[in-house]
Amino acid sequence: MEKLQVAIEKARAQREEARQNVAQNPAEEQLIETPGDVWAELPSFDLKPRVVRKNLLVSYNAGEDAGPFDMLRTRIIQHATKNSWRRVALVSPQKGSGKSTTTANLAFSFGRQRDKKTLVLDLDLRRCGLSRILGQKCKHNMATVLQREIEFSEHGLRFGDNVAFGLNNGPIGNSSEILQSNRARESLDEIDNCFNPDIVLFDLPPLLGADDTFGFLKNVDCALLIAEADKTTIAQIDVAERQLAELTNVMGVVLNKSRYLGNDDGYEYSNG
Ligand SMILES: Nc1ncnc2c1ncn2[C@@H]1O[C@H](COP(=O)(O)OP(=O)(O)O)[C@@H](O)[C@H]1O
Ligand SMILES: [Mg+2]
Description:
This protein is of the alpha/beta class and about 270 residues long. It has twelve helices and eight strands. It folds into two domains: about 1-35; about 35-270, 3-Layer(aba) Sandwich (Rossmann fold), CATH 3.40.50. It is about 45% helix and about 15% strand. The chain has an eight-stranded mixed β-sheet. Residues about 25-35 and about 260-265 have low confidence and may be disordered. Magnesium ion binds next to helix 6.
């Protein structure tokens, strides 16, 4: 009994000593009270030069080739700041327009904007576009995050200090129901609260052929339409823009794979 009393008194004395140390040193108090840096705790990755070349990641390194994406990034930031938008959907009428390639390149451009924290979420759940383009394998997919079966902190991958990706490890069938579910909305709000990003880029499924994207657009602030030069017709762009405008703000149209614009980069942006 006496031993127990001694142990209790010792523990009390240690607690009191810790309290006094904190009072004398506020920085230490801050250290104790601030939760872990959720960004720093995400596992980080880098890209192999072969992947960068093969998958047209021209914005991976700063420089002339990255110029069009840096410009697009800056225009997105300007529009987003002016309108208090944060969640940006990247959409295209059909698959193969270069939406995931554009999303990945934009992510690297946003990474160079060091005062902004950017989340890039691949919600084209029927394909695994971004993980293939980045050459990354992961254990889970964004469907499990959206269904709140796992936390984004258990799944996200960090590039540099200020970009985090949510990727997929395989196609899933019930994408449409997941994307328009209440759970998905709650999951995104939770990610927002926890990671507090300045911008969230969503790589979404093609508009034609499925209702996946239409069901999800209620969760975003605006959409950027990626069209494929030579392939997406003016009529398709027009229909897509009008359909988008019923559900969200249309930020603009990016004409990808263009050979006729007097520039070598294959990208052109017009304000919507
Ligand atoms: N600007 C571009 N110039 C040439 N090829 C491109 C360009 N953007 C994308 N691609 C190619 O087009 C194909 C489809 O691109 P991807 O980004 O997967 O499209 P989506 O996500 O719209 O289905 C890929 O082979 C990709 O390398
Ligand atoms: Mg894709």
